Each structure stands twice: as C-alpha cells, then as structure tokens.
C-alpha cells in the first residue's frame, strides 16, 4: 500500500514539475538556434590600379577615417594635371572672347553701324561657348581630383578587418570589393524561434543570451524585431529576398521557425562578439524593457 502511495506521489510530483516546466517554457521560450550577426561593410576601391602601400593586417581593429591602403596614383595625377591645364586654356579662350566682344561693342557704340549685327551675335555666341567650356573643364578637373583622392582608401566605420588577402602589387578594380569590415557598433543576435513561440512575443521583451564561446557569462538583451516572413524551403514560393530558414526535419510537419532580432543591451568587457558564432536565447514574454524600467 505504501509503495502504491509513494508511486502515485512520485507521478503527481513529476506531472506537476513537468507542467510547471511547460508553463515556464510558454512564458520564456528559448532556442539554441541563434547566431551573432553584424553589418558587414565591403571595402571597395573607387578607381582601378596596382596597390602600392598597405597599412592594415587581417583581423585588425580600425577606426573610421583610418588609411587602409593606397593605389598607384601616377595615372590619376597626370589626368588631374591635364585637366588643370585644360581649365587654364578654357579660361584663356574665354578671356579673349570677352575682350573681343567688349572691343567690338565699344566700337559699335562709338560708331553706330560700323560693326555688323551678325558679327556682334557671333561674338556673343563665342563668349557663351567659352563659358560653357570653362564649366566643362572645371567639372572635369573636379572629377580628376576626386579620382586622385580615391587612390587612398579609408575605413568608413569603426570595426574589424576580416578576410584580408590583399598584397602590395595586387591589381584592384574599381567597384570590386577587396576586403570586409565588420561594423563594431552593429552587432545583434538573430534567434530562430518556432512559430508556436511567437504568440504574445513582442518588441521590447527582455532576453537572456548565452554564447557558446562564453557559456558562463550570460548577456542581457532585448527583442528589437520579429520576422514577418521566411522563404519556403521547397521553393514553392518566390523568396523575394526573404530569409531562408531550413527545417530540422523534412519527413514530419514541424512548426516553421521565424527570425527574431535581439539587441545586446549589456556587454561585459571580457566578451567579444564574433559574427557567425552560436548562441542560446531565452525570451521573457512577460517582461519588457518599459515595464522593467
């Protein structure tokens, strides 16, 4: 009899614990399918040419405005000098046209009818044409000077250089990325939650983040957005740039997983976020940042 009572009590306790655990999960859904993300800035030269100097190395931290590398500027320096000479020539032509127009206009005023109307019109057209040539030459000079300045490539963000394989003497092509820069101010966690967990989840819910690389240092986070769509893995619908989230199994019907973007609100000094590393995330759907404050 005592054995039966003990068995019943154990079953009741186990069922109660299981129920409490399930209720806790409903209020605090979690996933081990999460990744560290960040904005990746492609460092792209604006001009073509051989690299003559490099000032960075792979995995180096850089600041916005730091000089990364230089491209041979000889061609662009020559083009700038030629454009400057063309502008000077255009200005000289304009000056002569203005002088000739003023001289003939003064003569016409002193002696009306001494200068044919067609001549005055032609002189005016010469001035207008020369003015247009000066503007074109000035624009060409600005373009040449810009290209010359583009031979020096700078960091556009504070962050970390990655996938750097550039060497002096390498030929880079305009508008072709040569290195990646991870924006250090843009890190976030992307967790993939089952659609059954999304109910009542909302922007502002607090999150607990555990990085696999720092298992003993949990991070605090906050839900910043919840995905509104994903691409079908079987290709039955057009992706239209929707995120692709592969199901864990294909032979049974499983709840789809939606991406949830989580901002890290507190980052300990000893923790370094790295793009692509894995994490576990638990969301507290009952607590938001506003309620907490």
From TrEMBL:
GO molecular function annotations of the record:
transmembrane transporter activity
Ranges for domain p-hydroxybenzoic acid efflux pump subunit AaeA-like beta-barrel: 186-284
- Where the record annotates domain Multidrug resistance protein MdtA-like barrel-sandwich hybrid, the positions are 39-181
What membrane topology was assigned to this protein in its record?
Answer: Single-pass membrane protein
Output a single Gene Ontology CC term carried by this record.
membrane
Residue ranges of domain Multidrug resistance protein MdtA-like alpha-helical hairpin in the record: 81-151
- Which Gene3D superfamilies does the entry link to? 2.40.30.170, 2.40.50.100
Give the subcellular location. Answer: Membrane
**SUPFAM superfamilies the record matches:** HlyD-like secretion proteins
The record, for InterPro entries, names:
AaeA-lik-b-barrel (IPR058634), MdtA-like_BSH (IPR058625), MdtA-like_HH (IPR058624), MFP_Efflux_Pump (IPR050393), RND_pump_MFP (IPR006143)
Report the domain of life of the source organism. Answer: Bacteria
**This protein's name:** Uncharacterized protein
Taxonomic source organism? Agarivorans albus MKT 106
Print the organism lineage: Bacteria, Pseudomonadati, Pseudomonadota, Gammaproteobacteria, Alteromonadales
């Amino acid at each position: 009899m005592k054995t039966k009572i003990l068995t019943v009590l154990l079953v009741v306790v186990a069922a109660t614990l299981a129920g409490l655990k399930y209720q806790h999960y409903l209020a605090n859904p979690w996933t081990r399918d999460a990744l560290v993300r960040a904005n990746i800035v492609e460092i792209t030269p604006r001009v073509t040419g051989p690299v003559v100097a490099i000032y960075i190395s792979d995995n180096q931290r850089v600041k916005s405005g730091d000089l990364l590398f230089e491209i041979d500027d000889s061609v662009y320096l020559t083009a700038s000098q030629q454009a400057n000479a063309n502008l000077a020539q255009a200005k000289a032509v304009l000056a002569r046209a203005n002088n000739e127009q003023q001289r003939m206009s003064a003569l016409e005023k002193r002696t009306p009818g001494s200068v044919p109307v067609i001549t005055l019109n032609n002189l005016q057209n010469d001035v207008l044409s020369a003015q247009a040539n000066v503007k074109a030459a000035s624009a060409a000079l600005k373009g040449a000077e810009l290209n010359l300045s583009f031979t020096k490539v700078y960091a556009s963000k504070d962050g970390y250089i990655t996938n750097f394989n550039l060497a002096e003497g390498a030929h880079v092509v305009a508008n072709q990325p040569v290195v990646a820069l991870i924006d250090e101010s843009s890190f976030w966690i992307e967790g993939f939650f089952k659609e059954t967990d999304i109910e009542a989840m909302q922007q502002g819910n607090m999150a607990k983040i555990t990085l696999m690389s720092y298992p003993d240092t949990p991070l605090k986070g906050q839900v910043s957005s919840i995905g509104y769509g994903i691409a079908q893995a079987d290709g039955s619908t057009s992706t239209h740039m929707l995120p692709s989230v592969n199901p864990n199994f294909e032979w049974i019907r499983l709840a789809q997983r939606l991406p949830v973007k989580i901002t890290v609100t507190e980052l300990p000094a000893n923790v370094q976020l790295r793009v692509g590393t894995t994490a576990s995330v638990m969301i507290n759907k009952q607590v938001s940042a506003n309620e907490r404050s």
